[in-house]
Amino acid sequence: MKIWTNPADLKQNLADEDWTKLFAPAYAVKMKIYLDGKFVDSSEAKVSVFDHGLLYGDGVFEGIRLYDGNIFRLEEHLERLEYSAKAIMLKLPLTRDEIRAATCETCRQNGLTDAYIRLVVTRGVGDLGLAPWLCPKPTIFIIASKISLYPQEHYDNGLAIVTVPTRRIGPASLPPAIKSLNYLNNILGKIEAKLFGALEAIMLNEQGYVAECTADNVFIVHKGTIITPAASQGALKGITRGAVIDIAAELGVPLRESDMTRYDIWCADECFLTGSGAEVIPVVKLDGRVIGTGKPGPITHRVLEAFRRRVLIEGTRI
Ligand SMILES: Cc1ncc(COP(=O)(O)O)c(C=O)c1O
């Protein structure tokens, strides 16, 4: 089978399964990875089996987008990384300036102008116990890859998603604002979504309120107002979510944070998800119920268009 590395080469209208198979997995593409201060070939970019990021999911990360040579909201991503690290008492091995420079250089080394960037800091190598204080040096690596997440048809027609049984971890256990390497409950949610034939899924918090999706924030439009669950309901403070909040103000569309149940989504006029990978993607069905007209709505369109304009001008030139 031919392996494509460029989404632009992809024929439209492929089934989702075929679509994922047509892309070379990121790990199979030759690229330069930033790893602990050096650029190494992807085949040589290895971390120890004793790294606590691997042994325990002990670490933090960011998923970032590069658009036409511009890293979208890089400062916000770096700030969130710093807060995540602070919250788990992980001292970042580099300063903000150094991480910014390494991120830009990773894109340049790979000759990329559009990319998905994964920035990861783990607790580093330690012994087999939990104790993070026995891990003297964090591991940091940055991958910049061409990968693209959803085919265009889903932006045109909208996604049909489901609510999954797995709940978002409660704030008393792991505050959802921490973008940690512990994604197992989101992964279970993703598996359940696939079992129900959906690409994304709503995850509820322990109280039964909508928190977010497995890797996206959720918004609805009701009677002209955009509504999204508060971070305190179990949502990550998404960078794209923040951009949409700014875009709503720019467009003059009222927006508020509010508790949300599945009922609110079922009875919404429009629904869309946001994430660095997904950008702004319409949802037209939840749990078999058609949302609004069953087509991506006008406010979703306006937000998506404004978002696509913004990503080209807002951020850090590499
Ligand atoms: C659980 C979760 N929620 C929301 C998001 C969206 O956040 P952002 O817009 O910063 O990518 C992500 C993205 O990685 C995520 O993993």
Quick description:
With 318 residues, this protein is α+β, with helices and mostly antiparallel strands. It contains 9 helices and 16 strands.
Explain what the structure shows:
This protein has 318 residues and is of the alpha+beta class. It has three domains: 1-28, no CATH class; 31-145, D-amino Acid Aminotransferase, Chain A, domain 1 (2-Layer Sandwich), CATH 3.30.470; 152-317, D-amino Acid Aminotransferase, Chain A, domain 2 (Alpha-Beta Barrel). It contains nine helices and 16 strands. It has helices spanning 16-22, 52-56, 74-87, 96-109, 152-157, 184-195, 239-251, 262-266, 298-310; strands spanning 32-35, 38-41, 59-67, 70-72, 115-122, 139-145, 159-163, 201-204, 210-213, 217-222, 225-228, 255-257, 270-275, 279-286, 289-290, 315-317. The strands form two sheets. Strands 7, 8, 9, 10, 11, 12, 13, 14 and 15 form a nine-stranded mixed β-sheet that branches. Helix 7 (239-251) packs across helix 9. The longest helix is centred in the N-terminal third of the chain and has 14 residues, at 74-87. The chain is globular. Mean pLDDT is 92; it is low at 1-15 and 18-23. Bound molecules: pyridoxal-5'-phosphate. Pyridoxal-5'-phosphate is lined by residues 63, 186, 212, 215-217, 236, 238-241, 274-276.
Q: How far apart are the termini?
A: 35 Å
Give me the CATH fold name of the largest domain.
D-amino Acid Aminotransferase, Chain A, domain 2
- The total of helices stands at 9
Q: Which ions and ligands are bound to the chains?
A: pyridoxal-5'-phosphate
**Structural domain count:** 3
**Gyration radius over CA:** 19 Å
